[in-house]
Amino acid sequence: xxxxxxxxxxxxxxxxxxxxxxxxxxxxxxxxxxxxxxxxxxxxxxxxxxxxxxxxxxxxxxxxxxxxxxxxxxxxxxxxxxxxxxxxxxxxxxxxxxxxxxxxxxxxxxxxxxxxxxxxxxxxxxxxxxxxxxxxxxxxxxxxxxxxxxxxxxxxxxxxxxxxxxxxxxxxxxxxxxxxxxxxxxxxxxxxxxxxxxxxxxxxxxxxxxxxxxxxxxxxxxxxxxxxxxxxxxxxxxxxxxxxxxxxxxxxxxxxxxxxxxxxxxxxxxxxxxxxxxxxxxxxxxxxxxxxxxxxxxxxxxxxxxxxxxxxxxxxxxxxxxxxxxxxxxxxxxxxxxxxxxxxxxxxxxxxxxxxxxxxxxxxxxxxxxxxxxxxxxxxxxxxxxxxxxxxxxxxxxxxxxxxxxxxxxxxxxxxxxxxxxxxxxxxxxxxxxxxxx
Length: 438
Prior knowledge:
By secondary structure, the chain is α/β, with parallel strands linked by helices. The protein contains 11 helices and 18 strands. The protein has 3 domains: 13-167, Spo0b-associated Gtp-binding Protein, Chain: A; 173-349, 3-Layer(aba) Sandwich (Rossmann fold), CATH 3.40.50; 363-435, GMP Synthetase, Chain A, domain 3. A hairpin with a 5-residue loop joins strand 5 and strand 6 (115-119). Residues 360-438 form the OCT domain.
């Protein structure tokens, strides 16, 4: 029988992976201005600098549990910096855009797939896209031979990215097991969480979190992971979607239905789920794991419990007999969980093998320019070119000379000559075409 799984639970939807677009503010352009006051002799250039564009900053908000808001708002743009003014007045800096995310948010660059940020601590901040630098006003380009420059510098564009946000729950203990084995019931029995519980498969559509407040002030966070089925690591059922949520747990409690009322073999179920863990992430499969044989109150033959318990213990696992519905056996189970969490301490990150980009925005990336030939036309490309073109006043000879010198300094002229450019050939930089003459 096939189930059509609803996407919503009540009036809330759990969104654990979304794609969004972020754009930092552009830097303001530098101004071209001159002092013209009556009593200021030889006032000279007085163009102010452009303001820096605002950054896009992600901030962890402990009050947010899902990525729901990003389902409706997928574009996040910071404010541009203002252009420079006269009298050497600098433009105002663009305001930073603060984007709130839930704890456990992984931020990936969609294009490269690399992790940009792993946001876990409450109120932690991370700059995801840096605003463009403001351009310099013409006051900076005055020299002894060029006392009235009629050009300024353009502001740099703000960084823009397409991102994949992925939510990984922050839980100390994760509950593993097939659907309908009693994980939600166990969570409800030991925490104040109120997961929806019913007697049919796939009832849990979102990973529920609860805080276990135990003896002597001990507490920990427990997560009920939605049921896995065979083939989950390949995307079957709901398992693939939620396997990622147990990647942060220190301890796994594998809940098995020992009653046999559904005709399943708990030992075989145990092996299948653990193979799914190995297939999904071998490092994750090595997390400490104990077993809770649930629904002992429904078992008709007690021998059935002991046979299952002995087989699992022979495999090297600690086994606890419980009835989540009646709370029988829960106290020794949680007592042992507290002991194990203290013994385990901190666990290594699952993401050790992945490169965390500490400095997202690097000037070196902006300086990369390439020259290519297409249909007898030479095309110059690079992210720094917009700033260079914006700095040119093509009606001013000094400005054109500055432009040519910058092209030479950046190695563009040398690269054009290596590719065989001749006098009269067309060079295209952004949307502007030039005829080349040596």
